[in-house]
Amino acid sequence: MPGGLAVADTRSHFADLFSVYAWVMIVVTVLVYGAVIFAVVRYRRRQDEYPRGKDKRTLLESVYALVLAVVAVTLVTLTFRTEDKIDPAASSGGIRVNLVAFQWQWQFTYPDFGKRVLGTPERVPTLVLPVNTLVRFDGVSRDVIHSFWIPAERFKRDEFPGTHTKFDLSFERTGTYIGRCAEFCGLHHTDMSFFVRVVPRDAFRRWVQR
Amino acid sequence: MSVVALPRRASLLEWIGSTDHKRVGVRVATYSFTFFLAAGVFALLMRTELAQPGLQVMSRDTYDQLFTMHGSAMIFLVMTPLALALGVYFVPLQIGATQIAWPRLALVGDWLIPISGATMFAGFATDHGAAKDGWTAFAPLSDVNRSPGYGMDLWIVGAFLATAGAIVLGACVLASVIRLRAPGMTMLRLPVFTWSMIVTCLLVVAAFPALLVALSLLFVDRHFDGAIFAGAGGATAYQHLFWFYGHPVVYVIFFPFVGAVGEVVAVFSRRRFFGYHALVLSLLVFAALSMSVWAHHMFATGRVTNQYFSLTSTLLAVPAGVEYFDLVGTMIGGSILLSTSMLFAIGFILLFLVGGLTGIIVASPPLDYHVHDTFFVVGHFHYTIFAGSLFGFFAAVYYWYPKVTGRLLREGLGKLHFALYFVGANLTFFPMFISGWEGMPRRVADYQNIHDLSLLNLLSTIGGFMLALGTLVFLWNLWISSRRPLPAGSDPWEGHTLEWWTTSPPPLHNFDSLPPVRSYSPLYDRRLGET
Amino acid sequence: MRVASPFIAWATLLTVLAAVLWVWSSDHLPPAIFTAAAGVAWIVALAALLRLYPLRVGAGPELSFAGVLLALGIAMLALGALVGEWLVLIGAGTLLAGLAGVAVEVRSQRRAR
């Protein structure tokens, strides 16, 4: 097998980053819902009164805006860090897969092994990949924009006509995952599915030799 | 019981040709609401199809037309015109003007919108059916070979005319604020809603022309073999032009409603709006930032400057957070009356938050790579546009209907409407977060029942029909309130702003007199002076 | 605060954001579109600053069927690009009739004052 270089899969990067965002969402939701419910319960109109209170608290609000900005910048920094792990496409190592999307099927070729998988309306194409191995994708569309999405991998990338899209993936666990076209591409967009079967490396070696 | 003159019925000629901004506003709102009902029926048809896996009630082709026309109508013909209609009606009143600037031009913009709607909907009568490439009509799917037929062309012309009409209306409102303010009405005494309309109209005039360019080029491609969007970079270029309009437009259909909610919250909390200056500043920053975030719709293309757009998109949380601070700050320490209008305003605050927070998710490229173009995103933007903006719109309707008609809506029916909408919206849109996360792409007529997608979709469908029921309750409320009118008087809610100074409905030239304006809540000042 | 201040502030913000995008983006189209929009914002700001609004308060008509004709004319012109030359001609005619109508309306308004 050319190169055994393994990179952590996007799924775990996604999970790490999302957990931070999820905590922020939960805390903000609890604070806002708590404040609104408190206001409605505590300050419900009970008698015909005109409340007197300050119309603004500029200092408090400025500090609060600053806190928000710090939270936002922190999240963006974490996002950038995760992106640096996901976005760069390696120029060597691992195995190569060229994918071609067209209305309404997928074709996967393995230039290193001279192998090709082509989907037909009768048969959903299956992309077979070795586990824990860097896979370098080179994708293009033959007609309109499609999008190569593997929900279990938490990743998708659009495929354009005329220009190639390069991205890397790697799978930490064996198994069969479903993949879909995520960019609306016409009448049979719904049916444009594929399978990804991740197998142990020796099983993959046997598969390419078959 | 005081005698209140109910409005005289307008003649047909007035309905067609009146340049009175109040007639223009009501006219725009009326046909926008009609388009809302039509696009809502499309949504119900789609939800019926999606209730179970498989194709039961329609073909894929029909489904594609329905989701395209649902989205297109809701953006071009419903929410944008409704947002502007509120501005056209109430900004001149709130600033103490006798009329809108360029009334004849406003009339032109007004009539462009129903014509554009008729044009778009005419697609259903053509050979290939209506447009079916989504409201985004991405090239090259929308070229003449992949999308043959008049439906797509009628969509292009329709979207063009609606956007042109919106630009005209926006310019008229903006010019009114700049030139027609009453004596004493300085920029920092403009009501919260008027400020929200200022930034809205700035977005309209600065961002909407990009769509006119995109649509014109698309038309040239289809009919004159332009091949502008055909090349390798063409598809990306179309997306940049489209989203340069397509992102600001969602703020155009957000700001006016947050402004209206601000007025409602202040009035029903019996307080001046809290943190007015911070709000004005945050609106300006919000509007500027929202012009700079468009390519977060394109993270999955791998062809944009992800970091810039991720940074600006996430920073939107700062002005949005300031607005929340001010809204909740107005309620805390107030004297809150839970009228129907106030309930919708609170619903807006609670549910828009869900849309806003999931918006931070899609602003992060590594997270967006997963959820982009899935039902997660469908859930996200329906929480902002339906559970957010439309709730804000109904808060505005229950608040201002007495001013427009001189009659009150029924509070009991209004609260039933709110309850159905609140439960229905959550039931419809929350499951979408899960179904999208688990692997359901958007714009599909069919799906496989894995990860409980079948149950999640069924819940969404049940919620959709609750929303339909809520809409029927609202229509019944309109009907019964016009059959057996309850006179409203000029100021049923103890309003803060100038529109409540004049009669309901206001006379042709709006005001017979004006009170002194010394703050952004002149009538509240007077009331405090009296009590 | 002067009337034009918020508009100048807004145009400045857009200009700064567009400038940052020029530096950050390797593709020229996105910052170019943004810069064009910032230009529109500056036009609004300058119009507010220099009061470039040909506006006479109280000059508004109450009814204007010429305005409706204008809208119809514009719509027919746009649809004519699709349907055929004949509709373009009718649209142009309607537009001209609308413009003439506006002229007549404006004159009778002036006379009435």
Describe the structure.
The complex is a heterotrimer of chains A (210), B (531) and C (113). Chain A is built from three helices and ten strands; from the N terminus they run H-H-E-E-E-E-E-E-E-E-E-E-H. Chain A is α+β, with helices and mostly antiparallel strands and 210 residues long. Chain A starts with 9 loop residues before the first helix and ends with a helix. In chain B, helix 5 (150-179) runs antiparallel to helix 6 and helix 6 (192-224) packs antiparallel against helix 7 (234-246). The radius of gyration of chain B is 23 Å and the shape is globular. Chain B is mainly α and 531 residues long. The model of chain C has no long low-confidence stretch (mean pLDDT 90). Chain C is flat and about 50 Å long. Chain C is 79% helix and 0% strand. Chain C contains four helices and no strands. Classes of the chains: A alpha+beta (210), B mainly alpha (531), C mainly alpha (113). The interface between A and B is large, with 77 and 84 residues.
Q: Topology, pairings included?
A:
The complex is a heterotrimer of chains A (210), B (531) and C (113).
Chain A: H1 10-42, H2 58-86, E1 95-102, E2 105-110, E3 115-118, E4 126-130, E5 135-141, E6 146-150, E7 155-159, E8 165-169, E9 175-181, E10 193-199, H3 201-209
Chain B: H1 12-17, H2 21-50, H3 60-94, H4 103-122, H5 150-179, H6 192-224, H7 234-246, H8 248-252, H9 255-268, H10 276-290, H11 306-315, H12 317-331, H13 340-362, H14 365-371, H15 375-405, H16 411-437, H17 453-483, H18 522-530
Helix pairs in contact in B: 2-3, 2-4, 2-17, 3-4, 3-5, 3-6, 3-15, 4-5, 5-6, 6-7, 6-9, 6-10, 9-12, 9-13, 9-15, 10-12, 13-15, 13-16, 15-16, 16-17
Chain C: H1 5-24, H2 29-50, H3 65-83, H4 85-112
Helix pairs in contact in C: 1-2, 3-4
